[in-house]
Design a protein that fits this description.
alpha/beta, 2-enoyl-CoA Hydratase, Chain A, domain 1, 2 domains, seven-stranded mixed β-sheet, three-stranded mixed β-sheet, globular
């Protein structure tokens, strides 16, 4: 099992650290409200590469250096006609919002997650937030369109009327309202978002990592499809688990009344 190691500076603005089976990725541009530039985009892509390629890392956490999570794209770059700098070929905006991956990532939100910051959260699998967090797509206030997934992903997380209100007014949702409508799965006290996300990640890591990844894919890709697709994907996922080493470990641990020792194989 991977132990805790000192943070690795992937780029000037992106930190990566591991704690057992959990990777913590931090956008580190606090003076710019963690706004996304080319350095952040390259760093996030590199961070996902590391998470996906390391067999000992099972869950990722994505945070921003306080006091905010991320204020979105660096508007100075947009004004200078340099918007392409904060995209990557594989990940799109921030090197992340369109990135295909297998392992779950939790957004740990302190303060504001606005514009591209919210769109980064929506590309994560779960959101843990402090009570002072706020979420919004204020692009219309600058005659812009939330083009990094916010306009179609937000309505999959919250009621359509709430998503429409957010898109047309640009006004943010409070942490309490985000929890009420299911955008956030857990609220915590200010300053505790990362530690609360780590506790949630530990709960995920207690389970078979192969089954977690298969379950994630089915939830993502079958929820809004027909039952036929859901049954097919569920059957395929079950077949893969039955052919794994961890199925025997999981059953043995249940019979022997002990915690399982997962291999990820």
């Amino acid at each position: 099992m991977t132990g805790t190691v000192p943070p690795l500076q992937l780029t000037e603005s992106l930190l990566f650290e591991s704690h057992g089976h959990i990777a913590v990725v931090t956008i580190d541009r606090p003076d710019a409200r963690n706004a996304v530039n080319g350095d952040v985009a390259r760093g996030l892509e590199m961070a996902v590469d590391r998470l996906e390629s390391d067999e000992e890392l099972w869950v990722g956490i994505l945070a921003g250096s306080p006091p905010v999570f991320c204020a979105g794209a660096d508007l100075k770059l947009i004004n200078e006609g340099r918007a392409s700098e904060f995209e990557t070929e594989r990940g799109g905006f921030a090197g992340f919002v369109q990135r295909e991956r297998e392992k779950p990532i939790i957004a740990a939100v302190e303060g504001a997650a606005l514009a591209g910051g919210l769109e980064i959260c929506l590309a994560c699998d779960l959101i843990v937030a402090s009570t002072v967090a706020k979420f919004g797509i204020p692009e219309v206030k600058r005659n812009l369109v939330a083009a990094a997934g916010g306009l179609f992903r937000l309505g999959r997380k919250v009621p359509l009327s709430v998503a429409m209100e957010s898109a047309l007014t640009g006004d943010p949702l409070s942490a309490d309202r985000a929890l009420l409508h299911g955008l956030v799965c857990e609220l915590c006290e200010p300053g505790q978002a990362v530690s609360s996300a780590r506790a949630l990640a530990e709960r995920i890591c207690a389970n078979g990592p192969m089954a977690v990844r298969a379950s994630r894919q089915i939830v993502l890709h079958a929820t809004f499809e027909s039952d036929y697709v859901g049954w097919q994907m569920s059957a395929e996922g079950t077949a893969r688990m039955m052919d794994s080493e961890d199925i025997h470990e999981g059953l043995a641990a249940f019979i022997e009344k002990r915690a399982p020792r997962w291999s990820g194989r």
